[in-house]
Design brief:
343 residues, 9 helices, mainly alpha, two-stranded antiparallel ribbon
């Protein structure tokens, strides 16, 4: 059986039994050809954040033009602040900071508005304010629900990709028991190096929203190298070898999807609708006059509380590898792979 070290040489494709679909094995860990069997494991790269609904840093925008460099730098600063908050504060503290800030600012704005525009206290604009608030509230609620559901779904998909990647490595590790002792030792060493590189080198980079391709490229090359250097003889060796090749291709696809998910972010339009919409809703509440000060403060504070919690949830879910609510590297330390951690 032949494993192609590049996209240009002439090794015949490896076929999955009974499937009739071709999957060429490539040694280049950063360029993988996805066939239909791999498509479910690449949801994020194919139809998730990247492309239609979400922007990929450096990619050509969906409309056909390249992203504005100035806009990219501004978004980068905002994302950096969000990542810093997620990585340095626990979720309760982050929620108190954001929700408390939104509520306090809203209450202060309410008091200032009453002092500057005392005529609003009599409710002279309440009819218009009520209509506009209902309209904006409905639109903002739909947008916010879409963003939160999408982010939560993609967080689950990212964790599924991580689990699948670790599972395929565990299968390769078990398959290596059917190989000669020297090949098995090489496979164990290569797999151990790879899982350590993922957890210890790549994961901190993904937690900061950075590209981690280089952190594991060499280790993945070593895995392909072990299989390239082995020529199976018996029928048993050939069977487990074929399955190992297929599983390693899947690892390559899942690795690329995982890395892509770590560098993605909400596109500018959804950021404006999410955070700008919250500002508009809060401004509309200030224009709704109530004669009793305590009642108005309770009204404004309640809406601010709900808006603050929603913004906290968006921030927590937006980065799938940062913060406490994030994808976990534990699958790379459990089960068959635990032996590479002294387990």
């Amino acid at each position: 059986m032949c494993i192609s070290p590049s996209w240009l040489d002439g090794c015949p494709p490896t076929r999955r039994k009974g499937a009739g679909r071709e999957k060429r094995v490539t040694r280049d860990p950063d360029r993988v050809m996805l066939d239909p069997d791999m498509a479910p494991l690449a949801l994020l790269g194919a139809s998730g954040r990247c492309g239609r609904h979400f922007d990929c840093p450096g990619d050509v925008a969906a409309g056909g033009g390249r992203a504005d460099p100035e806009r990219g730098r501004e978004l980068g600063r905002v994302v950096h602040v969000g990542l810093w908050l997620l990585n340095n504060l626990n979720t309760p503290t982050l929620a108190i900071l954001i929700v408390g800030g939104v509520v306090v600012l809203s209450l202060v704005a309410c008091l200032v508005t009453r002092r500057l525009f005392p005529e609003l206290i009599n409710g002279v604009t309440n009819d218009v304010s009520r209509t506009v608030l209902e309209l904006f509230g409905a639109i903002y609620g739909i947008v916010l629900a879409f963003v939160i559901v999408t982010l939560w779904t993609e967080l689950e998909q990212v964790q599924a990709v991580v689990t699948s990647e670790a599972t395929d490595l565990a299968v390769i590790s078990r398959n290596a028991h059917s190989f000669p002792d020297d090949v098995q030792k090489k496979m164990d060493r290569a797999i151990g190096d790879y899982v350590h590189a993922v957890v210890e080198d790549a994961w901190p980079l993904m937690r900061d929203g950075k590209n981690s391709l280089s952190a594991t490229s060499g280790k993945l090359e070593a895995l392909y190298g072990v299989l390239q250097g082995f020529d199976p003889k018996s029928g048993s060796e050939q069977a487990f070898y074929s399955q190992s090749v297929e599983r390693l291709n899947d690892v390559t696809a899942q690795r690329r999807t995982r890395i892509l998910a770590a560098t993605q972010q909400l596109p500018p339009l959804l950021q404006v609708l999410t955070y700008g919409g919250a500002l508009v809703v809060m401004l509309m509440t200030l224009l709704y006059g109530v004669e009793n000060l305590k009642v108005q403060l309770l009204f404004v504070g309640s809406i601010a509380l709900l808006v603050g919690l929603s913004l906290t949830l968006v921030l927590v879910l937006e980065h799938p590898f940062a913060g406490e609510v994030s994808a976990s590297p534990h699958p790379f330390k459990e089960g068959q792979l635990s032996k590479y951690w002294g387990g």
